[in-house]
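ARCHIVE RECORD
Type: protein–small molecule complex
Small molecule: guanosine-5'-triphosphate
Source of inputs: curated submission
Record status: active
Notes field left blank by submitter.
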Amino acid sequence: MHEGIVLRAVSGQYIVQIISEEGQEVVQHLCTLRGNLKKDFTYNTSLSVARRVTKAKRPWTKDTVAVGDRVRFVATDAEHGVIEEILPRSSRFARQGFRGKEQTLMTNLDLLVIVFACTEPNPDPWLIDRWLVAGEYYEIELVLVANKCELVSHTVFEERFREFKQLGYRVLPVSAHEKIGIEGLREELRDRISAFTGPSGVGKSSMLNAVQPGLRLDTGEIGYTTFKGRHTTIMRELIPLATGGWVADTPGLRKVELLKMSREELLACFPEFRSPLEEPCRFRDCKHMKEPGCNLKEAVEAGKVSARRYQSFLQMASDMGL
Ligand SMILES: Nc1nc2c(ncn2[C@@H]2O[C@H](COP(=O)(O)OP(=O)(O)OP(=O)(O)O)[C@@H](O)[C@H]2O)c(=O)[nH]1
Ligand SMILES: [Mg+2]
Ligand SMILES: [Zn+2]
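STRUCTURE (tokenized, with ligand):
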């Protein structure tokens, strides 16, 4: 029996890399799932780090094996195997799939690298908020990466990302082309499971090519009329890093599909709301929207909480039908 990590899922089959003490050499097997694992693969809630009480109520129901899962498998020959057991997950990243069913995208993520460009395309703070909320919700460590930093002055960089720094998020200026900040990025990824995410055309694949020379991920030229970018990256897979650890390059997403949350859960994803909400608002059932005597709204009016972030909260709440 070997212990491995699922690098890629391809129509019911899984590419599993053996994890050995020595590390270095990448040995992969194409595995199927033992029959009864397919039918009844149920997680219980205790696996989630239930730091937020509200979150523990959400049951982890039936699920399939996903990229990032640690598994035990039996090798049937040098290249094939059968997965016998799925080991407990430390985290899970999902999206709202068809008919409201949650679809697990990746598991055991340690770090979410949210990539935006300083320009071409310009960063969209509303979209950044949504990625931050997704990361906060799953309690995954977050880092913002601002690529193409060679194209803007320091002042412009500060203007575009300052508000996120002030919230306590780390923002790393990087240039995949000029090889700025690549060493730091490599250190972030070392010995961990990370995922790169962000809009199309911001340079996620270019950055990973710089972090690991020889990788040759596809990168695309963006349409200069719209800066919408072509979706060059299609696959969802973990790439073993020479420095240890794994990283997933994900396709650019125009939209962030947030899971449906409760109001309490959504509020908890805005770290700066915590302090004003420590004291109860005038009404015990305050929704923090239109109610008089709302501590959150008062903090916004007093400039302690950014009006833009509050607006972002209202928009997300409305999208979720809260
Ligand atoms: N000026 C500049 N251009 C860059 C930099 N990094 C990437 N680019 C360009 O930006 C475009 C998009 O790069 P990709 O790496 O394909 O972007 P991506 O985020 O992987 O895009 P998707 O796979 O579509 O999500 C390409 O034309 C790159 O050459 C950079 O540091 N500076
Ligand atoms: Mg790409
Ligand atoms: Zn309130």
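CURATOR ANNOTATION: The first helix runs from residue 35 to 39.
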